[in-house]
Input
Amino acid sequence: MELAKYIEGTIPPRNEKKPKRINKPIQQLLDDFSNSKSGKVHESRRELQRRFEYQSFEDQKKIIRAFMKKAVKTDVVWCSKYFVMEYADTVYLEGEAVELVDYLFWENEYLDVVKSYWLPDMENYKLLKVLTRFESPEYLKEKIKTIENEMDGIIDSIAYSSLLLKVCEDKRYPLPKERLTPFKYAFISAKTNRKISEEDASAAMIWAAKHETSWPLHFVRDHKGQLVFHDYKYSTVGLALWSLSKLGHISVIISFNEWINTVICALEKEKHLDATIISNNIQEKLVEL
Output
């Protein structure tokens, strides 16, 4: 009977143990972690990571410093998320959610450690993001060709886009249009104050519309109950509209708004909108683009 319950997953395996929580001061955990002969490196590492978000900023810096000094690759990668924050990250300080900023966890002495692990593993986008943030454009220009020619797995990543944004601040560096989607080409061009053709602008808007994953967030009813298009800021379409506006391609934006009106006309017939109805109508109208 007990075996049957185990197979059904209603009782845990007898030998399954939850990680033991260690009731020690942070400084004692740091001492155990730093001492390779303590026999407690693994358990102190796990506990320091678990309690990290609830510590003071000074203690958080001590933990980061201890991890980077020991310089085990998994620890360096774990630390990397605190060196470079993205808008989607949730950051905690002393147990409280705080506004997104780059806290001063980074120290220039960490750069060689990060590079030592990234050079043999260039597809590690977490380490690449750190280098993009803190390395010089000259160093990154030396390495970008290797990434483009040998690291196909990273070309579509945010890390590669961030890398291009940094090196392309130098207008003499050519933007590799053939390696980018039409949307990324327009977005990076807008961010680095370059120009693109109207044909490329139209291609970027069409690509964004066909690859948008948040269409339901774009359609809301106003206080009069009328359906309106909402320019959702962090969506693919929202970023494309921002890019084309900055690039001065207003005619392409007008054409897109006209297409959006045909979508709204189709959706207006629906009394109760849901994600499925919106998605189905969008798919029907995308063929017009």
Remarks:
- The longest strand covers residues 91-93.
- The chain has two domains: 55-166, 179-286.
- Residues 250-267 form the longest helix (18 residues).
